[in-house]
# Entry
Amino acid sequence: MEIIIQPTAAAATAVAARVIARLLNEKPNAVIGLATGSTPLLLYRALIDMKLDWSRVTTFNLDEYIGLPKEHPQSYYSFMWENLFRHINIAPENVHIPDGKAKDIPGFCAAYEQRIRDAGGIDLQVLGIGTDGHIGFNEPTSSLASRTRIKTLTPQTRQDNARFFASLDEVPTHCITMGIGTIMAARSVLLVVSGEGKATILRDVLQGPVTPQVPASILQFHPSVTVV
Ligand code: F6R
# Structure
């Protein structure tokens, strides 16, 4: 595990953006796993400014709220198109985001896993962490071997994400998320964490026991993780 500590979120973002730029340079048809939330926002801005060639890149997003239509401003579909995809030359057919309105959710999840396999697996998975140590929406007590599936959001995560909605009641209660096993199958992981509010959980993730109570702690067993 490589841990790169930077003095500011902007400096950390620049390091993380360089990791992705290097991958696209070495492998123009890379498969990249992407996250949403406030942490990757700066990263996506930096990537847009770098004017990289995304024409052969395939992406898979970690998660999506269940019940929000794609066009809802807080859907992760809207987030990704607004904050990254519409600014880069990615082919829309190479973009994959879980469908929060899928009628058959277990069937959709199995197909999502199959699509990742068909794409040759994920070369680099971008991650943030929740204040409870979640990755994707794999909340504490998630199975460390889990695959893409439906999950219930914890009260803490709903509270954390309420800032994006008009009220707490509007925050969805369920989501589709790649599993911890799905994330661990990525060939490399780029975890970006910033802010004092995440210092304690990051210590637990990197130096505490590996436990489903702190889902991101499983990354201690991943052979190729960069933490910025
Ligand atoms: C979102 C995701 C989540 C976030 C985490 C941190 O796709 O996978 O695990 O990375 O909730 O969110 P922020 O960056 O908003 O603190």
Summary: The chain has a mean pLDDT of 97. The longest strand covers residues 31-34. The chain is about 30% helix and 15% strand. The two ends are 11 Å apart (CA to CA).
